[in-house]
Write a structure and sequence with these properties.
The structure holds two protein chains of two kinds.
Chain A lengths: L2 H12 L4 H14 L7 H10 L4 E6 L5 H7 L6 H8 L1 E5 L7 H14 L5 E5 L2 E2 L8 E2 L2 E2 H10 L3 E5 H6 L12 E2 L1 H4 L6 E4 L6 H14 L12 H4 L3 H4 L3 H5 L10 H5 L17 H4 L23 H4 L19 H18 L3 H9 L16
Parallel strand pairs in A: 1-2, 1-3, 3-7, 7-9
Antiparallel strand pairs in A: 4-8, 5-6
Helix pairs in contact in A: 2-3, 3-10, 4-10
Chain B lengths: L1 E5 L9 E8 L2 E9 L5 H5 L7 H6 L8 H14 L5 H27 L6 H4 L4 H11 L7 H16 L20 H21 L1 H7 L8 E2 L2 E2 L13 H32 L13 E3 L2 E3 L8 E3 L2 E3 L15 E4 L5 E2 L16 E2 L22 E4 L8 H10 L3 H14 L9 H31 L19 E10 L2 E10 L2 E8 L1 H6 L10 H6 L11 H9 L25
Antiparallel strand pairs in B: 1-2, 2-3, 4-5, 6-9, 7-8, 10-13, 11-12, 14-15, 15-16
The chains are: A alpha/beta, B alpha+beta.
Amino acid sequence: MSDRESWFTDELERRGVSRRDFLGFCTVMASALALPASLSAAIAKAIQQTDKPVLVWLEFQDCCGNTESFLRAARPTVADIILDTLSVDYHETIMAAAGVQAHETLKKVVGDKRGQYLAVVEGSIPTGDGGAYCTIGGRSALEIAREVCGNAAATIAMGTCAAYGGLPAAAPNPTGAVGVADAVPGIKNLVNFPACPANAENITALLVHYLTFKNWPPLDEYQRPLFAYGKLIHDNCERRAHYDAGQYVEAWGDEGHRTGYCLYKMGCKGPVTSQNCPRVRWNEGTNWPIGCGHPCVGCAEPDFWDKMTPFYQHLQGPPILGPGYTVDRVGVAASVGIAAAFATHGVISYVKRSRQLPQEEPKPEAKKGDTV
Amino acid sequence: MTHIVVDPVTRIEGHLRIEAEVDGGKVRDAWSSSTMFRGIELILKGRDPRDAWVFTQRICGVCTTVHAIASIRAVENAIGAAPPPNARLLRNLIIAMQCVQDHVVHFYHLHALDWVDIVSALSADPTKTSSLAESISDWPLSSTKYFAGVRDRIKGFVDRGQLGPFANAYWGHSAYKLPPEANLLAVAHYLEALEWQREVIKVHAILGGKNPHLQSFLVGGMATPVDPDKQASLNADTLAQVRSLINKAHDFVARVYIPDVLAVASFYKDWAGYGAGPGHFLVYGEYPEDDGQRPALFLPSGVIRNKDLSKVERLDAALITEQVTHSWYEYAGGDQVGLHPFAGETKPSYTGPKPPFERLDTAAKYSWLKSPRYDGLPMEVGPLSRMLVAYASGHARVKEVVGGVLQKLGVGPEALFSTLGRVAARAIETLILAEKQVEWLDQLAGNMARHDLRTHDNSKWDPNSWPAEASGVGLHEAPRGALGHWVHIRNGSIANYQCIVPSTWNAGPRDAAGHRGPYEEALLGTPVADPAKPIEILRTIHSFDPCLACGVHVLDGRRREIARVRLS
């Protein structure tokens, strides 16, 4: 047994975690990542033997929502990540150092760990007015992003703002905000991890995948991991049966609303939003917006602030359907209706892309070009 | 004279830069600058007012409910929607848990490292820490073995040579006063609080769908269905879950947070002499207890001037203005006048140095925050203001807890006007709100038992039911202080939207008359032992709990007479 494994085993014992519990955790992670259970042993080995990789988390035009979401992580917890799993050398919201000392830390990572560290970006990056809309230590967000992400082994654009510009980039985009891909041209090994904010369970699953396999899970053409963004909300929604049966909420607080009828007519964007909310839910599976009677607002989709609004206007979908409709007929009607709705908004290509997503569970092999 | 720049100020939300002049070991002058702008109010223009809360909620992901609530109230105020009692109770529960969770996270994760030396904790004797813990609380996690485990975990972490977020800080600084065993106690509770915050915030998931960024608010009420007998509604089972989480929240606050604050403060009593702000305090009031036009509020509104606790003035929101004399904006009528938010303009106009830069020109414009003023004066907002106004208004429970804390620390009421006072007031408020939540839950359960299942006023949902022109204000006491949203609606769309947020009040720059903002004022006289490691500046700034992403403004240059502000 190597020193590293010995250290890890000691650490587990000290914390009252049995070997069996640990392997159970690895199986859960394999499941969260849609990997075969047989890989859990490989995950266990990788976690035990790995040196702590360095992570720097940058915040630009953000609201800190993704950081807050990260603080709600339970598998593993944020304390586990920070103390045992990753070396989070820079994260303005939690780091002890400030000012000059904070700068020194970031400079050291970029200098000493060039090409080896993991960068996370939260918030969009403003390009207007010479970068004056977001400066840190007198440097523009644009300059910092190019230096830090440009020299990272890989970058996660955490949340919709970092992935696509998000709220600051909504029309009329007064600050020229963009996402990481546009701010750092030619960036390598970028993963987009949208949603407003990104779900804590997905964040930790992605980090564990990286620690385990040293690469990203399979991504779609928007650079989003398929394990979290491979299916439409609508397809896994607990209220789908009511949609299929033509049972809709007609007014807030009505009998149907209290019974859990479909929120389609109240503006739900679940039919055009790719995200695994129905499966992982939020806050350790406690609940999710649709479970709490509110429609999906489509927060994981590019430009949702412009394309999904008004939030309470329903997609042009099927008329009220009688109980005689079969699931297949409803499905056809819904697809046509949704396509029409998006044609109205001039975003037909967007819907086409949604339909092209693979239907099968992703395979563990990373795609060409995804390796880190 | 040494010029200090602290940028980034870390362990806050958002982007804050402090420049200060230090002479003779004390801060002689200071400037506070927000260095980020997003323009959310401009983005809101022309959109559906019923959507506004989703947009404004993203002003901040830490206080993830507060802008949603303020926005909803502003639109409801404009269109005359009347949310039913259940919606008020659900909102009160959500707001209170936001405050309780946020204050605890602030103390342990954003503020404690200014007072607690992690490195010193490594040399603690776990037996002594155990004795200390048991002398201040009956919290069960207090054994020697437990603290030895925490110490060893941290030691293992340090021994690996990668200190992560704890690297390169001010460890060993002469300003740290806690003995090693108290440091170890605080480190253990730092880790416990991380677990606790994740758990208790599930109240938000149950009542609001998720956290952060809850998704069950609605103009006119709440989307959360309530029905004791339905699986898809807030029912008997989920009410029981909420009750259990509320109890858990209260338990930690009463048995860990409060004893820790008292224990830490007892080593830092000199900080009752530093950090006073402008001495003027503004509170909008919060937690409506009934459904009238002017409901009774659990925490009262009011204004205190010049630290005079003998007199609480009635709040008149028409006296609020914002100035841009030292902010990167232009006013059509000149930058020396203040504008009420209903007549607010925000035209960004950056005139600062081109990045990268070393220094701001603090004689000119130097911040993305405006300078809000009440009757022409800078005002401090936040837990200290709320507790002072409640105390001076005769709020029985606030008087009782404030009195107990002052007595325990052996300091007089004047100690409240300080860095230490802000820390204590936040803890006092947390306890009072943690106690209160169960009352609202009981009222909600009582309504449900009587089969009052209303959660929404549908009569104003359709924009066709609205007047062609309408304006409204939504006031809220966020964890960090007085928050206001002002909306003007024309033909069903947003014509104008203005926010004045707590951190604009506290962190804003100087005004036309040369008044410093509260941060700037509070830093005067702060001791700085080592200008290269200005931990004392962080202590006072962090005592306000900065939340800077809220530093957003905007809007059109239109000026018009709009209905007088109605306070709800």
